[in-house]
Known about the structure:
Blueprint: H1 11-36, H2 38-49, E1 50-57, E2 62-69, H3 71-121, H4 126-129, H5 135-189, H6 195-226, E3 235-238, H7 239-249, H8 251-257, E4 260-264, E5 270-273, H9 275-292, E6 298-306, E7 309-317, H10 350-360, E8 364-370, E9 373-381
Parallel strand pairs: 4-6
Antiparallel strand pairs: 1-2, 3-5, 6-7, 7-9, 8-9
Helix pairs in contact: 1-3, 5-6, 6-10, 9-10
Amino acid sequence: MDIKLKNKLPEWAKTIFIWGIGVLLCFGLYYLVDDFFNGSFVDWFDGNYMVTQYAYIEEAGQNGWIRRPDYIKIKMLLLWGLVLGVILWIASIRLSCRLYSAFKVRQSVTQISQMIDAFMNTDTSAAHLFPKECAEISAQMVEIKAAMQRHEQILKEEAARKNDLIAYLAHDLKTPLTSVIGYLSLLDEALDMPMQQRGKYVHITLDKARRLESLIDEFFEITRYNLQQIEIEKKRIDLCYMLVQLTDEFYPLLQQHGNSTELNVDEGMTVYGDAVKLARVFNNILKNAIAYSYPNSVIKIWAEQNDGNVSIYFQNKGKMIPSHKLDAIFEKFFRLDEARTTNTGGAGLGLAIAKEIVMLHGGSITAASKNEETTFCVSLPGRD
């Protein structure tokens, strides 16, 4: 739909329009006085602007009483009439201009509204719809439409992520739950099962139930972070001491995979943050490094201080992460394919939780992978 603003009214047409209104007002005033106030006007004029004088009457050739106009009063009447006429003229012009302007504004608003509606609801380009006089409006509408399209795309992506979240959650919860139900059914049906085999099945069932509990805990934790219900209690933290404790806690899991850690952090190096929350960050990253590292390999941990920030690195040897997945690994429920069926692979929330915590601290977390080495870098404020 091609809608253009109508051309402005020519100056000569405006002049004729204004003069026409003035003439109509004069005729209207004349007929008002002549038709409606004829007798009253004559009596009023005779009583106020006529005088009786004793003077010589040429036609009669003698003195007598005559009625004649009071020219001084009539001059004042004409003067005030002229002033009133000018005032009415100006007022009529201003009123006419206001009415005409209001009409044109209303017309322009209607036309622009139609153009905006056509632009927002069709694929027609702004250059085709809007005239040159509306170049500024056209540019603004292009920006608004682009912003709305971006917002719609974000909403679609969020809806897709919600659907993925439900699908992943159903998958991850169903797997251990199915195992629990299966083993409990065996125990219930086979009452004469040997005690050794029964004990084995009970152990497996307990292990699956604990895994199910862990998945549910992770899900509710990421939900709390998303809803910003987590309070950060910042204080100065001894980074070296925290990382030493971390590696000691993971010693059994490291031994199970044949891995070891190499820690290189200066004593006395500190960060400013919530000790419990940051411990969860480092815990999740190290757990991820163990899950994806080659057996019998060394996981390196070191820290650097630069421009008031502290960067903590975790590096493990293992299969490279494709470049297009490096950003995705911090998304909820993302896991590399080979970890989804293992016991070490969680719900894919560990790194997402780590990212939320780091962002709440005003820091950043990134990942790089090359030459079979994957490195996570957590950058945190070194001071308040």
